[in-house]
Amino acid sequence: MKSLIRGTLVPMAVLAAMTLGACATHPGNPNALWNIVSKQCVPQANDPSAHNACAYVDLAGGYAVLKDIRGVGQHLLIPTEKISGIDSPRLEQPGLPNYWRDAWEARVYVERSLHTSLPPEDIGLAINSASGRSQNQLHIHIDCMQPEVVAALSAQRASIGESWRELDVPLEGHRYRARLITDGTLRDTDPFALLVADTRARGESMADQTLLLTGTTLADGKPAFILLNDHVHGLDRGSAEELLDHDCHVRGR
Fold this sequence. Notes:
The protein has a single domain, classed as HIT family, subunit A (2-Layer Sandwich), CATH 3.30.428.30. The chain contains 6 helices and 10 strands, in the order ααβββααββαββαβββ. With about 250 residues, it is α+β, with helices and mostly antiparallel strands. Strands 1, 2, 3, 4, 5, 6, 7, 8, 9 and 10 form a 10-stranded antiparallel sheet that branches. The radius of gyration is 17 Å and the shape is globular. One of its GO terms (cellular component) is plasma membrane.
């Protein structure tokens, strides 16, 4: 968490004024997120006296954390490099930062917005497919999990191993695959890399994929992750964001 201590939270009234006119998820402006990050957050990060539109900007790490105007705690991790999304060939190239690791560390901003800490299984990180998103800049949603999804994953936890398998029950009406990641800090594991290798083997397109990462605990008490994957088919638009709860009902449990 050391890299996040330097970040400062922007008062909600100020942030709302900065982002309302360029809604971060407005389908009519698919470049809104990129405009906010490239034209506001990054330049303001170079000016210590400026109020930054983002909650945190790590210029060396190549990402910014922005409070989404939707939800009580939802934040977005957005690269400061122009990357379209899960369909970008950049995800398959060497030297890409591990945005999932950075996004997991950035969950503290969700907790600060909620004024409470959350167990790892109540936090989720999601990225939508190319057809299931509204923005043409890669962004990872950081928010609370749907309580029903938390319960479903808990019930099936014993059957989730380190290879992909379809869950026994649908989540939000869709069939997801799941796998365990035992690298509890994501130091050596990038979920994008795991998906790229599997998608190639299955002959599918990365543009059609969606991912969600949530925390769990191993039998020995060590932290780990559950990675969920779905893809575009039929009426399923490949939007794992559906497993998140922007009203964050888990905080009241």
